[in-house]
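Entry 14. Structure prediction run on the chain below.
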Amino acid sequence: MTHRQDLQTHLNQLLQVDRFKDYGPNGLQVEGRDEIKHIVCGVTASLALIEAAIAAGADAILVHHGLFWRGQDGRVTGWMKQRLARLLQADVNLFAYHLPLDAHAELGNNAQLGRILDWQAEARFGEQDLGFIGSQPSPSSLQSLGEQIANKLGRTPILLPGDGRPLKRLAWCTGGAQGYFEAAIAAGADVFLTGEVSEPQAHLAAETGVAFVAAGHHATERYGVQALAQALAMDLGVTQQFIEIENPA
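Output returned:
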């Protein structure tokens, strides 16, 4: 068991939240009960996750995608009212960590995706050093790489071929990091993996020869929050569980 403030202090220090300029607040987003014994973690603070966490007896919910984002409508109506109402009724805390969780060298989304795919990071690239890049000993084709990713993540990725070069230098950044493609190219990548793809990336892949893989926003960001919750269980003596809310995006 731990206290809410102790949990927040521990998380903020562990993830070094002050280093990051983010799109929304990191840390405690909704205050619940003081004492925390059981943590439910998930990718996004959706109503489905909140309901499942309450049913599982959670004292706190830990997510990557929280409720509050820069530029959103600040009125508590509709879906926002529903989510907040359930949290407040059940007196459950909500903690959210966005870019700090992406970036953590061991527990973060990028580090954990590298572990799942058996990719070894050698350096960082891109804004706030969020992107990871490394080499594999035996260069592979885009097709074989796509099959590996599909097998590990459980969904078929979108593959944009470059010039067909052997893929030795691998770059990745989970979630909606398609805007990091040019930085990955500049860093010397033969292929860049992220969660989503936008229209310009197809042209960049064709014109630069660097392949692009969109493996799913949700699918690439399931692992950091699980590693983080497991670390909290070890460090603070709480129990934890991951609840998967399927998302095709």
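The domain at 109-220 is CATH 3.40.1390.30 (Udp-n-acetylmuramoylalanyl-d-glutamate--2,6- Diaminopimelate Ligase; Chain: A, domain 1).
Filed with the rest of this week's runs.
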